Every structure is written in structure tokens, then in C-alpha cells.
């Protein structure tokens, strides 16, 4: 039996002494886009950071596997070279490091060999054109002085160049206006293919109107309480989270009528 592209098996994660993710399981097949939605504090960003190997987020039980092989013992840079990618909700500024040098080194690390300058520039130009960005953008320091929209486009630029196996997008739509959301979404859709998987973490349906998911999951209290197709996102947009949380026993009926 062939292993799935990526699977999370009964994962538990804590921050400090506080359990945040509580037995979450999810399987992403090749070519699939899964959306995770949920209220604030449900564990969405904790899940993303734990999968990427942030040391603050401690896995206490369960597993996460890429092509059937556990990634939990791997350092974040090893996970990245294997093909795990995280687009941050709040990308970090790196003053003094130019985007172009950062990107070329990252692509070389992902490939396991230095990418020739001519090939890199050709790939870079194609991705910049798709994101409607001028080449002067990559002469700037990484995220230093970038607007919120520029930071998110920089994340999608990395996605397009690195071509990861499993992309985890943590609230990539946060803070974007309509035009920027459309451009960023088009970048995600260009990346989408039969050899990779995408995990979209978002609060709102608006991103999913552009990047149509195969599956939608509701995360609450550190676990998935309901899964469905795109109609589940539409239900959340119309009704909010409370009816589903009540169904899962997480919101008392009195809270709904108050």
C-alpha cells in the first residue's frame, strides 16, 4: 500500500505546560488542498508551527509523516529541504539579507546543489511576473520595510521557487486587500499540482473562493470537530462557528441564546 503524501496521526502539541493540539489526525493526498478553519485560540497556528519544527511547540504524542516517513526528529531546515514549507502568518524581517541572495540559497538548499545563475534568474523572472512584482523588489532586504501585502507576496514567491512537496499556509490572506488577495491566490493556484499538497489555514471563506479546497476541516479546542467539502466553508460563512461548536459539545446552548 502506497503511503499518503502527508499524514498527521493523533498529534498532541503543548506550548509551555499548556496542551494546545489534542489528538489531531489528518491525511493529505497528492494533489489535494485541505482548508483548516476555526475560531481564535483553536490551535491552527500551533499546528502549523509544530509541523515546521518550531522549538517552542513541543510534540508530546502522535506523529507527522511525509511519504510515510516521520519528520518529527528532523530540524526545521531538514524538513524544509525534504519539502515541507510554511508561509508564516507574520513573516519575520531579516535586515541585511537581500531577497535575491536569500532566495538563491534557499533554492540551492532545496535542490541539494547550487542552482546556476542563469537558470535561477529565469525562474525568478517568471515568478515575479506572475505576482506582478518588479525585479527591484528582490534587491531589498528580506521583509524589511515591506507592507503586509508585500510580505505575503514574498511568501508566495518563495513557494513558487522552492516547489515544496507539502505547503502549509498559515493565514496567508490575513491583512490583504482584494487585489492582493487575488494575486496571492493566483500564485497558490499556479503552484497547486498532482505532485504536492496544500494545507490552508484561514479564518474566512474569502481565500477559499479563489483557492477552492478539496476538503474543509473545522478545528476547535485542538482537534478537528467536523470535516466536509466547500459547502462547509459556506455554512461557516453564513452561520459562524457556534452551531458546529455546540454540536461538538464545546459551546453550551445558553451561550448561543445570550
List keywords for this structure.
disordered C terminus; 258 residues; 38% helix; single chain; 4-stranded antiparallel sheet; Rossmann fold
**What is Rg?**
19 Å
- Uncertain segments: 252-258
User: Which band does the percent of strand residues land in?
Assistant: 25-35%
User: Sheet bearing the most strands, described?
Assistant: 6 strands, mixed
The total of helices stands at: 10
- Please name the CATH architecture: 3-Layer(aba) Sandwich
Q: What's the mean pLDDT score? A: 93
CATH homologous superfamily name? P-loop containing nucleotide triphosphate hydrolases
For the record, the count of structural domains works out to 1
**Fold-level CATH name:** Rossmann fold
How are the strands of the largest sheet arranged?
6-9-10-3-11-12
H and E order: EEEHEEHEEHHEHEHEHEEHHH
Structural class: alpha/beta
| CATH domain class | Alpha Beta
The tally of beta strands, per DSSP, is 12
Helix content: 25-40%
Give the N-to-C terminal Cα separation. Answer: 51 Å
Q: Judging from the principal axes of the Cα atoms, what is the shape? A: globular
How would you describe this structure to a colleague?
- The protein is of the alpha/beta class and 258 residues long.
- It has one domain: P-loop containing nucleotide triphosphate hydrolases (Rossmann fold).
- It contains 10 helices and 12 strands.
- It has helices at 44-52, 76-82, 99-111, 117-130, 148-162, 178-191, 206-210, 230-239, 242-247, 253-257, and strands at 6-15, 18-28, 33-37, 57-66, 69-70, 84-87, 94-98, 141-142, 166-170, 197-202, 215-220, 223-228.
- The strands form 3 sheets. The protein has a 6-stranded mixed β-sheet, sandwiched between helices.
- Helix 6 (178-191) links the parallel strand 9 and strand 10 (197-202).
- Helix 5 (148-162) packs parallel to helix 6.
- The longest helix is centred in the middle third of the chain and has 15 residues, at 148-162.
- It is globular and about 55 Å long.
- Mean pLDDT is 93; it is low at 252-258.
Amino acid at each position: 500500500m502506497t503511503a499518503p503524501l502527508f499524514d498527521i496521526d493523533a498529534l498532541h502539541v503543548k506550548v509551555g505546560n499548556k496542551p494546545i493540539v489534542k489528538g489531531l489526525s489528518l491525511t493529505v493526498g497528492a494533489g489535494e488542498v485541505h482548508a483548516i478553519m476555526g475560531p481564535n485560540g483553536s490551535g491552527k497556528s500551533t499546528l502549523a508551527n509544530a509541523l515546521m519544527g518550531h522549538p517552542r511547540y513541543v510534540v508530546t504524542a502522535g506523529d507527522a509523516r511525509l511519504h510515510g516517513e516521520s519528520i518529527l526528529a528532523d530540524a526545521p531546515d531538514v524538513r524544509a529541504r525534504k519539502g515541507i514549507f510554511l508561509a508564516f502568518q507574520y513573516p519575520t524581517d531579516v535586515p541585511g539579507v537581500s531577497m535575491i541572495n536569500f532566495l538563491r540559497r534557499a533554492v540551492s538548499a532545496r535542490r541539494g546543489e547550487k542552482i546556476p545563475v542563469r537558470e535561477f534568474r529565469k525562474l525568478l523572472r517568471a515568478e515575479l511576473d506572475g505576482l506582478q512584482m518588479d525585479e527591484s523588489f528582490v534587491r531589498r532586504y528580506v521583509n524589511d520595510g515591506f507592507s503586509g501585502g508585500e510580505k505575503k507576496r514574498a511568501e508566495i514567491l518563495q513557494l513558487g521557487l522552492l516547489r515544496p512537496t507539502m505547503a502549509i499556509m498559515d493565514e496567508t490572506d490575513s491583512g490583504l486587500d482584494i487585489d492582493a488577495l487575488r494575486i496571492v491566490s493566483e500564485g497558490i493556484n499556479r503552484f497547486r499540482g498532482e505532485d504536492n499538497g496544500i494545507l490552508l489555514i484561514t479564518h474566512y471563506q474569502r481565500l477559499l473562493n479563489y483557492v477552492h479546497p478539496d476538503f474543509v476541516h473545522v478545528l476547535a479546542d485542538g482537534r478537528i470537530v467536523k470535516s466536509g467539502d466547500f459547502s462547509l466553508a459556506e455554512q461557516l460563512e453564513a452561520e459562524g462557528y457556534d452551531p458546529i461548536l455546540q454540536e461538538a459539545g464545546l459551546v453550551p446552548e445558553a451561550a448561543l441564546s445570550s
